[in-house]
Amino acid sequence: MVSQISCKNSNSMALRFLPFSPLFNFSSSNRKRTVSTSATLASKQPVPGKPEADIVVIGSGIGGLCCAGLLARYGQDVLVLESHDVAGGAAHSFDIKGYKFDSGPSLFSGFQSRGPQANPLAQVLDALGESIPCVNYDSWMVYVPEGEFLSRIGPTEFFKDLEKYAGPDSAREWRKLLDAILPISAAAMALPPLSIRGDLGVLSTAAARYAPSLLKSFAQMGPQGALGATKLLRPFSEIIDSLGIKDPFIRNWLDLLAFLLAGVKTNGILSAEMVYMFSEWYKPGCSLEYPLHGSGAIVDALVRGIQKFGGRISLKSHVENIVVEKGRAVGVKLRGGQFVRARKAVVSNASMWDTLSLLPPEAVPKSYQDGIETTQQCESFMHLHLGFDAEGISDDLGIHHIVVNDWDRGIDADQNVVLISVPSVLSPDLAPPGKHVLHAYTPGTEPFEIWEGLDRRSNEYKNLKAERSEVMWKAVEKALGPGFNREKCEVKLVGTPLTHQRFLRRNRGTYGPAILAGKGTFPGHSTPIPQLMCCGDSTFPGIGVPAVAASGAIVANSLVSVSEHSRLLDAIGI
């Protein structure tokens, strides 16, 4: 569900629009598979060069690649070890029968943004001297109990939808909401994520460096805005309630946006995240971006950047455990027994639960273990990947569609919300001529419990896949219209929570930590074990493409000196 929403030359926000999604359990007719260009950019041979590095990064998700890229840019000897045969983690692409599928994120923007308010991923790419060609668009289709409509981003378009589908006071309430939160957006965006580091050096690279812009932002927002800014680290529902927002359609819509953004409703998401998103979605000139050649193009760009500055990536290099000597992380042991030494640090881009499983139990303080084991998890996903003929499909089909079956069940209820992406409408090279690729999924709402312990080869598993995927098939049929025939699809792939667990090495197939604003905070990047750090969706700032990119950058910054960090900020103009 990862997405980003932003305006031209501005920052982007991360709606969790398309989620983690792995290589799938293929039927016999779809067993032949090729991988995207990103796989060929990295070494599939045994660890390239010496089996040692200054920093060893476990996992090549967006967070791990951003961390490794910046470390290489800083001149560190960095080695990324990836268990899969393709780089990218949840954001990798894969090919079947000439169809190139996004396995995860596919709603983006902000790749062309520059400066202090740029998307964290864009800032990392800028530091690596890489760019991503994109196609721009500004809308997505929405199917809700009240009806269906084309939702356009921008400052005025949503008022038209409110007039048709919401109550008589909805336009007034929406305007009241915008008037209250847009003035405090400057405070939410004033500190560039790339300026953050995990030590006291942040006083130099962030606090002192950007103090003037922060003070200017507070001065411009006035007393009311300054008061609102104090709520940025509180649940967004508190702002909604304080403004007296009561229209059911608006409250449902806000819950939906919050859930897509962070996997929780408005009572669990930080106000800062929602304010940040509003400031980007409802400004003049906003647009969404889709990378030409698919989300794999993002991975390719990061891999190129790593290798350009001397970093290494080794695929099919499964880390069996993290080696701890004299209380310090000194490297990793690969499946097969090879030891890879880390002279300065090991960085885990795995989830907190999977990182814990890599550590020797005697090296882990009980309080740290208990904290991880008691952290609530987001649910998992069902996925449907299709390749089909475009004949009979509307020529003006949009790339993104969202289906909500029942507001009363809650947008976090299982089998209730389906998200659909048809990226070949913007990047035709993702499918053979005259064909389309499609990815549908239930966004982090599929319970792992009903799948746990099933044999993937059993009829029970196959029958459950058919049963639990039906809601996605029906949503696809609604979005694509009568010209679509599921029986004529050339590629049909269904992914389950067990697919997540197996291919993405995700504990219980989870999307990540379900940490509610006001009741907990995402962990930092250091650990009780010296020389072991973590990045990715189990760490601050949390879940989503920009968030994990920022986490990778924070770890990289923390492993170099303040002067090196400051020189990089100068070099990229922030």
TrEMBL record:
InterPro entries on file: Amino_oxidase, CrtISO-like, FAD/NAD-bd_sf
Domain Amine oxidase: 62-557
Signal sequence interval, chain numbering: none
Coiled-coil ranges per UniProt: none
GO molecular function: oxidoreductase activity
GO biological process, one term: carotenoid metabolic process
SUPFAM superfamilies cross-referenced by the UniProt entry: FAD/NAD(P)-binding domain
Name of the protein in question: Amine oxidase domain-containing protein
Lineage: Eukaryota, Viridiplantae, Streptophyta, Embryophyta, Tracheophyta
